[in-house]
Amino acid sequence: MLIAGLVLAAAAAAFHVFIFALESLKWTEPETRRIFGVASEADAVTMKQLAFNQGFYNLFLALTALLGVGLVIVGAATVGLTLVFAGTGMMLAAALVLILSDRSKARAAIMQGTLPLLAVVVTAIAVSIG
Description:
mainly alpha; about 0% strand
């Protein structure tokens, strides 16, 4: 069961790396603007610096979770699990903030928060029965 939790954490991290790429590297591209509901290129240019910064937050959350997964794999379970829970827990918290701040973003929050939620639950169960 721990392996399933780690796979879910890695998948959540991969999704957040994808979000990083959209926000920090491809923000003004038409497909990215469509995904995030930014109507015009001018609006995207105005928001570009904020999106760039936000993308890095997503990258850092992903790296936290991935470092944790790696540490668990090499036998540093306590530190690794702490990082897995920190990374995925913050991803989940960010999804909750998104939906609580703007109900119209429910679909995005569900996409952003489902894998981290599953990772937290499955990993916690694995640790508790462990």
